[in-house]
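Researcher: I'm preparing a figure for a lab meeting and need a structural model of a single chain. I don't have an experimental structure, so a prediction will have to do for now. The sequence is pasted below. Please return the structure as tokens so I can convert it later.
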Amino acid sequence: MTDWRRAATLSRTFLATATGAALVAGCGAIPGGSGGPGDTLTVMTFAPEGTKATNMPGMTAMAKAYERWVNSQGGINGRKLRVLTCNERNTPAGAADCARKAISEKAVAVVGSYSQHGRAFMAPLEAEGIPFIGGYGVSSEEFQSTLSYPVNGGQPVLLAGAGHQLGRACGQVSIVRPDTLAGDSMPVLLNAGLKANKAPEASDIRAAEDTADFSAPAREALADTAGAGGASVKEKDKEKGCVTAVLGERTETFFDAFRRAAAEKQRTPQISSVLGSVSQALVNRTGGKESPFEGAYLTSWYPVSNDPLWDPMRKVIAEHSFGDDGVDPDDSGAQTTWIAYTVLDEVVKRFKDGEDITARKVARVLNQSEKIRTGGLTPDLSWRYQDMRAVAGFPRIVNGQVTFQIVRSGRLVAQPGEESMDMTPTLEQAPRAA
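Model: Understood. Here is the structure written out token by token.
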């Protein structure tokens, strides 16, 4: 089912452990940098934590669990992995600080990270030739920079996928999204999916990113879907209005306000979101089978979280995330980080024995390599020139796959009758969104 080709022998594990102990004893710390077998490879994972907006602690926690696991297996081709983590703080300054830390620590890559401030972190990384592997996909620079290697289609494909999903079920759609630069592209992308299904454009409702009061956006969204149906909608199953919210951790707060507003008007519009804004953990926390998210539509990049394809990741989390409650195998951030480190593993294994590994060499291998497998969690990935797609503003989307899910009996499951779909053709027809 998976294709994990981990080089792990008992003697190699003993050698890596002994070498690490000698380095600590002799120098007081394990150095970063590059080199041949037995040396240490330094990488970084950054994500926001403890902020008033979106937080992604599961990404850095997953990175540290991966570090412990791969080093217990003898490292990657005999090279010990050193994972630095950094709190991006959801600010441009925080993102730039993390990038500068990666540079000062001589990281060969930034892996499996989250930031909406692409301009702040990509410019420093580009100046030093450090590749950005498997970002969450929330900033447009991740799909524009020649040193970015995305493993999913980011927000663009999720929103286009949501448009496809809702366009087949709704007469009118409202999107509630953050009033930020990253949020400005969301309606354009959602409308691309709606247009492909000959549905009208969505109403665009902005909300302050760090607000705690969503009563006004909730009333506006409810009012905008009140006129769904009518003469222009022939199918009875498309007469309902639908509301999708893409607000990160604030999505729960919005739908709480929306639920109260809908109850006052005695209406029950279809609700939806994307993975990252709604998760299995959120459904569990809000009541499971009795959760207000029961019946909600969701789009994701990956298979549903109970798919056996995730078993290797679950095993690593169970055995190596001790003392860290931040790792949730159902979390799309942790899943993205796992896939990103899988790519790193495969790239490092393509270096010759004894070959020096630097950031620029890692980027060169990524630019020239044949397809990289991720154990079936994504299509095989490659970032060669011929793999780029004609998506305006997002040319480095090499994986446009989405899956369609629904909350049933308190679990995120595959939506009946909907197969996974490549949204790249839909996005190629969309106007420039970034």
